[in-house]
């Protein structure tokens, strides 16, 4: 039986900096959502934006946060490009 291909999530430096300022409960939310996106790399957000390179970026509202991400299927990565409080 073939094993399931696993994706990993990558954070921008700005998201990592935000993570370091959060309370423990908020850090758990951020990590859980990032892991969910890595486990479900074909997820769609609540709406889409286009980044400066013309790439569609999904924006997902989870809890009190907005997560902007896109999936790089060739690299098996979900890239979390920004997180902001909703």
What does this structure look like?
- The chain has one domain (8-85): YaeB-like fold.
- 29% of the residues lie in helices and 37% in strands.
- The protein is built from two helices and five strands.
- The protein has helices at residues 13-21, 24-39; strands spanning 8-11, 47-50, 56-62, 65-72, 77-85.
- The protein has a five-stranded mixed beta sheet with strand order 1-5-4-3-2.
- The protein starts with 7 loop residues before the first strand and ends with a strand.
- The mean pLDDT is 94.
Could you name the key traits of this structure?
alpha+beta; 2 helices; five-stranded mixed β-sheet; 86 residues; 5 strands; YaeB-like fold
Estimate the mean pLDDT confidence: 94
* Biggest β-sheet strands, sense, barrel: 5 strands, mixed
* Rg: 13 Å
- Tell me, what's the shape? globular
Task: Give me the strand/helix succession.
Answer: EHHEEEE
Number of domains: 1
């Amino acid at each position: 039986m073939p094993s399931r291909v696993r994706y990993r999530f990558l954070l921008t430096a700005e998201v990592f900096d935000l993570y370091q300022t959060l309370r423990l409960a908020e850090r758990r939310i951020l990590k859980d959502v990032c892991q969910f996106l890595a486990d479900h790399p074909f997820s769609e957000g609540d709406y889409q934006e286009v980044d400066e390179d013309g790439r569609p970026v999904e924006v997902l509202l989870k809890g009190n946060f907005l997560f902007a991400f896109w999936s790089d299927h060739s690299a098996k990565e979900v890239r979390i490009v920004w997180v902001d409080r909703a």
